[in-house]
Amino acid sequence: MLLFLDTANINEIKEINQWGVLNGITTNPSLVVKEGGDFKSLVKEICSIVKGPVSAEVVSTETEGMVKEGRDIATWAENVMVKCPLTPAGLAATSILNSEGIKVNVTLCFSVNQAILAARAGATFVSPFLGRLDDINEDGIRLIEDIVEVFRIHDLKTKVLAASIRHPVHITKVALAGADIATMPYKVFKQLVHHPLTDAGLQAFLADWNKAKVAVSSKA
Ligand code: E4P
User: Fold this and answer.
1) How many angstroms separate the first and last alpha carbons of the chain?
2) What does the pLDDT look like over 14-42, one tens digit per residue?
3) Under 8 Å between Cβ of 57 and 72
4) Which of 52, 106, 170, 181 has the fewest Cβ atoms nearer than 10 Å?
């Protein structure tokens, strides 16, 4: 499973990118406006930092506008990916952009049927939002499991990008469910690496090492 960061914040991206485990970025209009500045410059900067795909979302609601925006976004960088919403207009735009060789991440997916439609429209990625389903007392992980299974049965090539991740347990569960990619906020990425036993173990190893070095140097 590939690991994406769900942010448009340059400092967060630079920090996690240094770990050598970052495979891509997802942004959305809410995340972009939080950072301020010019959308295009921000996306271009992110694309220059990260090797993998960087999703940039269209804001038109009609097919024609989405296609126009998508064609423009696709020229910003080699690794940029256009994000279209899972609406009839978004599916039509996805289908047109896909026929032109432009990769699309279809976002705001909340059901298996929507995921099938995204795949049939030619989406490269489909993004089911599990956290937002959990928020309304539905089972987000179950949705990921079902989409993965349906795509397997019907040999649909669209990658399942588990989105709207809220905590580290979500990551383990979507990995077990067979998601191709998980995109998570900075806070969750940081939580993945920390374990109190790792910290305590390292502290003990270093304390022993330093004690032994002091003992050796006092003998010399
Ligand atoms: C994914 O592409 C979305 O940007 C994101 O995961 C939405 O997450 P949220 O429900 O925490 O806003």
Assistant:
1) 52
2) 999 999 999 999 999 999 999 999 999 99
3) no
4) 52
Do residues 112 and 150 make contact, with C-beta atoms less than 8 angstroms apart? yes
Catalytic residue among 83, 103, 159, 173: 83
**Which residue spans within the chain are E strands per DSSP?**
2-6, 24-26, 54-57, 80-85, 104-109, 125-128, 159-162, 181-184
Cα separation, 184 vs 171, whole angstroms? 8
Q: Is the dihedral of CA 136, 91, 167, 197 positive or negative?
A: positive
CA distance 181 to 1: 5
Q: Which residue has the tokens 């179950």?
A: 142
Helices 186-193 and 168-177, interaxial angle, to 10°? 80
Candidate from 27, 28, 144, 180 with most ligand 1 atoms within 8 A of CB, to mutate: 28
Q: Is 51 a catalytic residue?
A: no
> Any idea which fold 2-194 has?
TIM Barrel (3.20.20)
pLDDT in tens, 56-67: 999 999 999 999
The span from the CA of 33 to the CA of 22, in Å, is 23
The reported pTM is 0.95
Residue 48 identity: S
